[in-house]
Prior knowledge:
This protein is an alpha/beta fold. It has one domain: Metallo-beta-lactamase, Chain A, CATH 3.60.15.10. It is built from eight helices and 18 strands. The strands form four sheets. The protein has a seven-stranded mixed beta sheet, covered by helices on one side. A hairpin with a 3-residue loop joins strand 7 and strand 8. The termini are far apart. 43% of the residues are buried.
Amino acid sequence: MLKFPRETVDSHITRIYAFGTELMYLVEGNEKNVLIDTGSGFGSLKSAVDEVLAAHGNTNPLAVLLTHGHVDHANGSSEFVNAGIPVYLSEKDRYIYLQHSDDAFRKGGLGIEEFEGHGTYVEAEDYIPSAKFEELRNLTEGDTFELGGITIQTYACPGHTLGSMIFLIREDDGETYLLTGDACNTFTFLFQEYSTSIEEYEETLQKVAEQLRGKYTKVLLSHGDGNGYVGILEDVCNVCEEIKTGKAEGLPFEFSGSTGKIAHVPAPDKGNIVYNDDRIWKKDTVIR
């Protein structure tokens, strides 16, 4: 049976580790709670969330926000839907959610049975069927969730997927976090045909960076150790410009049978992009 290790970010936020590299965040307010992302749908994430809330004596209602529709972020949602808990995902990610929630796609990416620190995968116990897209609620830019002492605000950041969202988490008695999901990080994937072009993404990221400048003190990521850095949005904008002007290193990269280039040697404190030479300009955009 798979387990979900977790660690405290601060008195309001718990980071939860799935068996892959994906991370989820439980945000507890004085009146309501929010879970951000649901992992791949292997193992009972809801049980792990319930354990954290019970340990804190927290019986406040829960809602779930999904950063985007990829398999490793959205496919544990049905546990929450079936419990009557609202789950939100941008309608703009329907196209990728439908592909990534397919049973054959999900099981094809499993591949192994042992996960260090997470127990052993047992299909009958650990496989969570995907929620139907129609069971999810639409998440839009500007949506605000008041939790009591904590406010979460949604910002659209298309690029990695068309419906990718980032969240500003403001604590009245503490920090202000920017949670970027996969929309902007130290290894931003933009090389798949369903992503936007580099040119489009840079325009979006410049706009979002301007909207958020000076509004957050820490950055949370959805992979790795979860710790980002202030300035990552502007940093990745600069990487876009390097790609467009031919100044990126363009190192070979392969992932799940797809090939692309990574702009620079990966580093934990530097924004980065995986891209494809035929997906740089707006004219290269795939019509969906």
